[in-house]
Amino acid sequence: xxxxxxxxxxxxxxxxxxxxxxxxxxxxxxxxxxxxxxxxxxxxxxxxxxxxxxxxxxxxxxxxxxxxxxxxxxxxxxxxxxxxxxxxxxxxxxxxxxxxxxxxxxxxxxxxxxxxxxxxxxxxxxxxxxxxxxxxxxxxxxxxxxxxxxxxxxxxxxxxxxxxxxxxxxxxxxxxxxxxxxxxxxxxxxxxxxxxxxxxxxxxxxxxxxxxxxxxxxxxxxxxxxxxxxxxxxxxxxxxxxxxxxxxxxxxxxxxxxxxxxxxxxxxxxxxxxxxxxxxxxxxxxxxxxxxxxxxxxxxxxxxxxxxxxxxxxxxxxxxxxxxxxxxxxxxxxxxxxxxxxxxxxxxxxxxxxxxxxxxxxxxxxxxxxxxx
Length: 373
Prior knowledge:
Structural class: mainly alpha
Number of helices: 18
Oligomer: single chain
Number of strands: 0
Shape: globular
Order of helices and strands: HHHHHHHHHHHHHHHHHH
């Protein structure tokens, strides 16, 4: 499966280039360099994390399938109808996982990574969360019980994930009847918006009929403002992953009663007890339109692109050889690459010099080459 992802990466890059070129030609560019790199960094980091969390990615699912499946190896699952059923089932359970990722504070801390970008383009699609999997595997276990094999489950999930790539764009308008059945760019723009009327709507991955059935659908009308209501204000990829948990922990410590300290993790994001009104300023949509950025000289931008290209190549190699090296060697290499991703984020914020980034690159390369020798 990891090698299949390596084959898909060039297609993603080509489509990103095409969207950028189209927007530039139409004088409606939706890309900013630092934001795009930050989103792509999260996509690569999520793949590295997936390599060292296979127990949650597929292992626990496989255990349930092996011991509990009602219809294992049933001929139906290998028919065309069986494959369609597996994909629809995955999309259905993904709807509930996605919805819980917005309605539960702990899961929002994980899922919010995907929403942090204030831009909306194909790189946003690849801004994948890394820690949802530690809870998310539970939502798909009914598929294992029904007899969907781990291999078929993995491919169905990849189909649903790859489908969602193209719906992260501002360059495709409404599509008539298609918008009523399938997730589309119009429907998904709503999902990424922080406008009051759009908040926590349109969760469907491939099919928007789940939202229509369960009361979470909203039509795109007013212009969408993207991001999260509490803006990240950083290009640090590790802070993007952990910041939500840190904020939850701080909020829990401020709660006067132990039961509230516990509840805050499982209530909706922003929850507070009735006798403890929420603190902080009210949400300001106009302020949310102001996009975080840090000016970089042209030379620094070029170095950032080259640094990202090297990390992309290193991650692709890691995915390609993951099955051929020990788990502990893989964990060491992935950890070293995370340091390099952090360095790139710090460089984009002008908190690390060129020299510091190059020294970190040398150290990371040394660790990687020594481990894989």
